[in-house]
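User: Structure please.
Assistant: Input sequence and predicted structure:
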Amino acid sequence: MTVTHPSRKRRIRTYLLCPPERYVVEYAINPWMDPSTPVDTELALKQWAGLRETLVGLGHTVHLLAPESGLPDMVFAANGAFSVDGVVYGARFRHPQRTGEEAVHRAFYESGSWRFAAPSWTNEGEGDFVYLPRAAGGLILAGYGYRTDPRAHLEVAEVLGRPVVSLRLVDPRFYHLDTALAALDDENVVYYPGAFSASAQQVLRQLFPDAVLATEEDALAFGVNLVSDGRHVVLNAAATGLAAQLSRHGYLPVPVELGELRKGGGSVKCCVAELRR
């Protein structure tokens, strides 16, 4: 039986996406990438367009970042920066194949009069940072273990003026925090426990006793790599078990198909950066 939660209210968001016009898998920098598996660019564009139309159809504003030649992973726009209240902490990618994206994202924010802070330490934007405005007055969850240097956690706390909770990732299949944890609303999360160290799991249990816990099956289907406006949860269509769980908790699952993007190691959230003025 579905539990009714009248308090589940959406908050209109503003997002940044980049179309996969240059998207290919020609190198491997995460366990999901296999250069021998061809990417159907036309299908990837169609699936990405479906995601964009879904977000717009839910009433959200979507800005577009123009793709550039030689940067095939730009479709994963969430990795380029992390913004809170008009302040942007820029990305500094671990792998050289993606470092060219840094300047493109910086130019976008600086042209829009955001206050941009260049990072001193390796971090991959919203790939490893999750913001919860109403948890502890504004809380940042920060992942490390594969991509983001823990020293970036201290730096982002200084830049954005918010407390940061560091969470260690221990399964290489979940190389970014956003593959294993997502904000469902302004104060609660969904996560897959097996992606985290024992101490990080304990911290998550203490902070979020009402969190939705994803199964390994749904996490491997990139179900946790989702975008939620507080009521509507846009997630990978393959994560049927998680969709059912979310429905029982009073959220409205909105499945989308992103199979071609999964070949690059990403899904819904990887493609979507939230712009927080």
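Residues 14-274 form a domain with the L-arginine/glycine Amidinotransferase; Chain A fold (CATH 3.75.10.10).
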